[in-house]
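Running this now, will post back.
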Amino acid sequence: DQPFMKPSAVQATYTAGTIVELQVRVTAHHKGHYEFRVCDKALDASKLADAAEGQACLDKWVLHRAPPAADCKANGPADCQPIDENHPERWYLPPPGHDVQVAGSDFQDSDATTATGYEYHTMRFKIPADLSCEHCTLQWYWSTGNTCFYDGDYIAYFQKMKSLGWEAASWAPAAVASWATETNIACGPQGTGSFGEEFWNCADIKIVPGGPTPPPTPAPPTPAPVPTPMPAATPMPVAAPTPMPVAAPAPQPGDCAALWGKCGGASWTGSTCCETGSYCKRQNEWYSQCVKGTAPAPPPTPMPSMPSPTPAPSQPQPQPEPKPEPEPEPEPESKVDCNQLCSLTDLSSSGNMCSANSGSQDACTKTFVKKAGFMVPCSWTGCSCVADAEGLLECPNQATLCTSLLQARGKAGTPPRLRATSRHVQRSWGAAFIQGNNVSMQRATLMDQELDSDIISREDERGVE
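Update: finished.
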């Protein structure tokens, strides 16, 4: 059932055989990768037998990434990431920005807070040279990676990225871990048995033929030599009249970009004006877009201020004795480390989660849960007990460690503290979308509810699953 799958006006026009720039806005970072597909007709749910018929049309034209720019270097812009030789259609999400919320592997919808930041992901894809359509459907697909990865090919890709000098561990830490295998990081029955969230969105577009490349113009024949004539008398120079300046013609409506179309950015050579009722808004250094409304008026130019007279020198005043600055407070240590887990109760052994202790703060702070070798302490929020993703620990051989600690405590002295590998994440919620007025997000069912992840739906949904 696709109640919002109805064609709308064409949002953008592309040329076959060219490279286009696409942009995705993200308010909650879920890792994973994006893909784009094109159906060479306008998809209408009322004319489709089922969703599979619409997806089959989209699968005919899977867009591939354009080669990275010549000046790309390791750890540069996200679109500089190496092309996946096994999956040239994938564009992997870079590490989240400072203001973007992050969905951790132990995230629950009840932990979500209001989104306050977002970021744009800008990427370039190739339009197939033999594709043209008056009204076609562009599909965006996001396979998230905060719970599990789409397949085991993530391991090969990110390990190669690491060998090329990229900080791959900040993109997909589990994929470059020494213990990573398809069975413990991939989704589905061949992997962990769980399924990550998936998002879809569609836009109505038009693709015009690119046309053949014109043949080179032949060189003109070399003329025969002409005898040099006798020089004539040089006439007196006559000054030519200075032409009156002619105002540049105003851009015609057809010359300007349509609503939601691109109108500027680095290396952009197309139109920089927008159709009536919209204006060109700068999104970032690489992308400007035509949006509804009127451009805000520029701030007034400040009037230059008169220089103030130079005051007469005053008598020097005695300076007070400098006071030593206070020593900075030491940073607090992590709330819980691998040693301290030995004194907490493992709720996972009884099949419970942190929420089982939402009625008692004292009981909450004395428990933890574990999943696939990761330990997550429970944290009291003031009214409930949740898994504290900021204290995520990797504690191999935890049982051996706890036994050693019990033996050490029977002797004099205190056993040394062991340093744990901690992955700090921020609990959050959010949404994602691509160009177009209509938006669709669908959530895949999670087979493993122990480690859920966040999703927020948007109004005016539109998509093909």
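The chain is about 10% helix and 20% strand. More later if anyone needs it.
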